[in-house]
């Protein structure tokens, strides 16, 4: 059971600022008090308040601390390995403490090999709110971004490796994509600069629509390598299921007679 779903009963869970923490070892609930500290790591009590990664020597005996100060729980890394917060934010032991927002925060401690040890954190909001169970409610679908059939073909060619769910994929270059498209649709003009212009138009349009990853150059910081923005575009379209593996059928030359729009 996750921390968010473990807040179902008792007046104590409704106290604003209450910290709930859970690992596969167990869980704790701590009321907010100035100076109160909660510790996580591989060790047993009383060295830590909640154990995590007990069989993994890459996890420090004392790896993280959460301290209540100035109306917030402040998270600090005191271990040797990195910790990862939502949106890919990393924390080193030299990083400044991070305040936990009300609600749910997953914390991952890097372990040995490919292991990632999860600590689920939940801070009760100002109204004592908890997560309401919605077992029979309608599922919220992912955000599907609007792209034309021609844009889909271009993106599938550029992002074939993403749709194969390869590890650490990167897009084809515009030159490589032009060569592939010349084979699929030889009657069209597939110069690399034409493909780049079309993709740039997609990036600008989806940026204006609130795309979750950067798609435009920051003029104040100079022009970054364009391949990184294309990576952001393909990553977001695949994660949102706007592009899905069946789209790879477009790479069959008999199936690419698409309208322009």
TrEMBL record:
The keyword Lipid metabolism does not apply. Residues 38-90 form the FHA domain. Transmembrane segments: none annotated. Keywords: Phosphoprotein. It comes from the Bacteria. This is FHA domain-containing protein. It comes from Nonomuraea helvata. The lineage of its organism: Bacteria, Bacillati, Actinomycetota, Actinomycetes, Streptosporangiales.
